[in-house]
Every structure is written in structure tokens, then in C-alpha cells.
Amino acid sequence: MAEQVILPAFQPSLFKDMAVPKKSAKNAEWGTFKDSLRAPVHRWFTYPAGFSYKAVEHSIERYEVTAGQTIYDPFMGSGTTNVVAKTRGIHSYGVEAHPFVYRIARTKLNWDIALSDVLAFIKLVRQKLPVLSQEIKESDDLLLEDIFPELILKCYEPEALVDLLALRTLVLEEDLEAGVRDFFFVVVTALLREVSTAATGWPYIAPKKQKVTSLDKDVFTEFSNLSRRMIEDIAKIKEISGGRFEQSVHRLHNGDSRNTEGFIPDGVVDHVFTSPPYLNNFDYADRTRLELYYWGEAKTWGDISKNIREKLMTSATTQIARSNPKYKISQELWIECPEVAGFIADAVATLSELRKTKGGKKSYDLLVAGYFNDIYQIIRDVYRVLKPGTKALFVLGDSAPYGVHIPTDELIGKIGVCVGFHHYDIEVLRTRGDKWKKNPQRHSIPLRESIVILSKS
Ligand SMILES: C[S@@+](CC[C@H](N)C(=O)[O-])C[C@H]1O[C@@H](n2cnc3c(N)ncnc32)[C@H](O)[C@@H]1O
Fold this sequence. Notes:
The chain is α/β, with parallel strands linked by helices. It is about 40% helix and about 15% strand. It folds into two domains: about 25-95 and about 250-285 and about 310-455, Vaccinia Virus protein VP39 (Rossmann fold), CATH 3.40.50.150; about 115-240, no CATH class. It has helices at about 55-60, 80-85, 100-110, 115-140, 145, 150-155, 160-175, 180-195, 220-240, 290-295, 300-305, 330-335, 340-355, 365-385, 410-420; strands at about 25, 70-75, 90-95, 200, 205-210, 250-255, 270-275, 385-395, 425-430, 445-455. The strands form two sheets. An eight-stranded mixed beta sheet has the order 1-9-10-8-7-2-3-6. Helix 2 links the parallel strand 2 (about 70-75) and strand 3. Helix 13 (about 340-355) packs antiparallel against helix 14 (about 365-385) and helix 14 (about 365-385) crosses helix 15. The site of S-adenosylmethionine (SAM) has 21 residues, from strand 3.
């Protein structure tokens, strides 16, 4: 958000009792994916929105969640919570609305891949890939520019892209068992950023910036190495688990956590550990654009909106059409949680005025209303599925669109109490955004990443 602050920080009139966070948690990196990039299986897909597997482990130990109990992540993402649960023999539920990300999680939870199947497919690829690549090069019908959107053409050398197209064909069309196909879907997905000559580091893709280290990388060699590394990861994580994983069941759902009735019965969950989208305008759908374009799951911005953006809870202005009435604070939220609804209404009104003064005219006003409508429904559903005497932990950051501070952690805590939770605590993981302080284009409101702990009595 590059807009200048023109109003002083928003003063919440209704929140005189704004809680001072109780204590600091030990690890400032828990809200980031850094630890997970070094851990077997967790590292299969670099998900910028992911959190540290250590945060999940800590929560499981702190609240004594044991093998045979059940943990639920309503924003499963790439499956960090569920992979930790499986390692420890804890059952899990996971809901993820983004179909591509869901597929990654599903694959990371399937440890039944046989080494022999993997080696057989590597062998098949070694034989067929050069032949298929040659056919593509010689064909008049298979033109790369007809098959791939421009972004993909800009990210790869033509030679590598021909191999990647051949590889895609083999993974999608060869006769593979479903789990094995998923496994190679994830291998090739990971490979995409390895062999790209554009600076494709997460979350942004910079096709104009060249990554010279990728120039010498050969698609087949990288594919073969990654496949072997991933199958070794399965052996490693099974060893860490010491056999506990075999007793656990993992039910994953590509759907919407605003309402999971029909998927998760009432009162069956012992612990929730999750991280919702932050209210920071991060477009989850767009951040997987390279992958969706490569796999042919989307060709345009419109495809991504229809297939993904519209299915996710509101957390980015790119999801919003101003004519859609759903971005008004819901009646249910007003009735069940008037204090929070009043606070949000004040913020929405301020943002609506600020918007008129800004060149970009970002719909932060509707974003805030839509975000809390959705969060409210999810917290209500989380309350429904939890057993009495349990806790739900939400890792999240607050935000300050147009310089208006929205204390997301505080608001989620209060919504929790409105829907029936006995009380809430907030623990701050780290303060954020300090680096912007000297930049006059940015607001100077101190932001933080915290854990909200909702307790059900
Ligand atoms: C902060 S990320 C969670 C990342 C996860 N903790 C991990 O380590 O990979 C939030 C996730 O919520 C998903 N999401 C957004 N709206 C959703 C909804 N209505 N139901 C379920 N998942 C949703 C997004 O696609 C995104 O993957």
C-alpha cells in the first residue's frame, strides 16, 4: 500500500478496553515459512503464506494434544498443521478453498508412494522426454505461444519450455496411480521455479530480471533429483514419526471453511491451529499464477478469478466488485456482536471517505466489511466443531489500510467471545513494518503478528 496517510491513526471510540497483549511468544519467525523450508515434506512447496511447522509442534505440546485426538486447520494452505499432526499420530481435518494449494496439501499427506513407482516413472521420463520434446519442436501445430500465456514464455528459455511441456504431458497423460500422479505434479511444480530464468522468487515474478543460475539447469536432471529428494523426505518423516503416523486419519476438503457442516460433525475436534488470510490485500490466487498457467488450469486473470479468487474469503481488493451487496457488515454480525460491528462500521466509514481522496481508489472500506463477515462465519463454525474445554489458535497480523489501524487480533478475539468462546488471549510474535517507518509513502502505525487464543469452556 503506497498511499500517504492523511488522517491521524483511527481512534476506536468503542474500544476503550483494547487489551494489551499479555506476553511475548518465544519465536518471532513462527508466522513465516522459513523453518518449514528446511524440514522434510514441509519443504516440497514454498508457500509464502505458510507458517512454521514449529509453531504447530509447540501448540500441540503446550495444550497436550496427543495421538488419537483430532486437530483441525480451517485454512489448511499447504498442509503444515496436518503434516505435523500426522507425524505425531494425531488425526486431522483440513479445509482449503484454493484447489491448487489443496492438491499440494493432499500430496504432502500421502506417504504411501512406493520408491519403485517413482523410479519407474523417472525411467519412463528419461526415455520419452527427448522424443516428445523433439516432436514438439518439429510440430507445426504445437506452438509454445499458442499453448502458454505470455508470462510463461517470458520466464523460460525456449529449450527448457519445450521440455517442461513434454514433462507436463507425461505427468498428466501417462497411466499413473492417482497418488503417484499427485506426487509428480508437486515435483514438477517445485521444478518450475528452479529452472526459470526469470527472478521468480516468491511471491513476485519478475520476468525482466534474469536469474543466470538457472541457465545451465537441465529439466530432466532437476526433475530426477527433486523426485529422489522428495521420496527420501517421505522415508525421513516416517522415521521421525516412528510409526505413529500409521494410526492417524486425515480428512482434507477442497472447500469453504465458512461452513463445514456435512464435512465435520459438531464437537469432534480437540484443537484448532490455523492462520487465516491477513487483512493485507495479499491475493492468494494471483500468487500461484505461474503454476496455474503452466498446468493449463488458467490462461487469464478472468480464469483465475472464476476458478479461485471468488472461492476464497475476502482478503484482497482484487476480489471485490463494488456493486456486490455482500460487502456490507452482515445482519448476523450486527446482532451477535454489535460492539465489533460498530467498530468495523466506523472504520468502513473512515475508509470510504479516505478512498475519495486517493488516486488508486482502493476498496479498503468494502474489504474490511467483507473480511470480518467471513471471519465471523468461520469462527462460529470453529466453535461448533470444537469439544468443550479446548482451544483454537489463530496466527495473524493486523493491518492499516490507508493508515487506518485495524486490530485484527483484538477483533477476532472479541468475535470469538460473541459466538460463545469463554475468553481470549493475545500473544505477540513480532512487530512488523518497522522498515517502512522512514518511507514517507507508508503509514507509520506499528503493526504486529500475533496468536489469538480462543478458549471454549
Ligand atoms: C495464511 S494461509 C494458510 C497457510 C498454511 N498455514 C500453511 O502453512 O500452508 C491462508 C489460506 O486460507 C485459504 N483460504 C482462503 N479462504 C478460504 C476459505 N473460505 N476456506 C478455506 N480456505 C480458505 C487460502 O487459499 C490460503 O491458502
